[in-house]
Design a protein that fits this description.
- Keywords: Membrane, Transmembrane, Transmembrane helix.
- This protein is mostly helical.
- It has two helices and no strands.
- The chain starts with a helix and ends in a 19-residue tail after the last helix.
Length: 73
């Protein structure tokens, strides 16, 4: 299983390095840019909820949530 994955990855690397630089750059940006944006969004949500949960004020809703805290309830 791992040997097959390793062989596949080596084939992809070999194919990528044989392309011209503008095509390499375009492919890397087309894959890495969306991946980095999604990862940054996920990290932001995790930190937001963790800080809201473990912060000093339990009355405030997390910044990314759609509901607001009602101080009267």
């Amino acid at each position: 299983m791992l040997q097959g994955l390793s062989d596949w990855w080596n084939d992809v690397e070999l194919w990528l390095i044989q392309l011209s630089f503008p095509l390499q750059f375009a492919l890397v940006m087309a894959i890495l840019l969306p991946l980095c944006v999604v990862l940054a969004w996920f990290i932001d949500r995790v930190v937001d909820y963790a800080s809201a949960r473990f912060g000093t004020s339990r009355d405030e809703a997390p910044l990314g949530s759609r509901h607001t805290a009602d101080p009267d309830s």
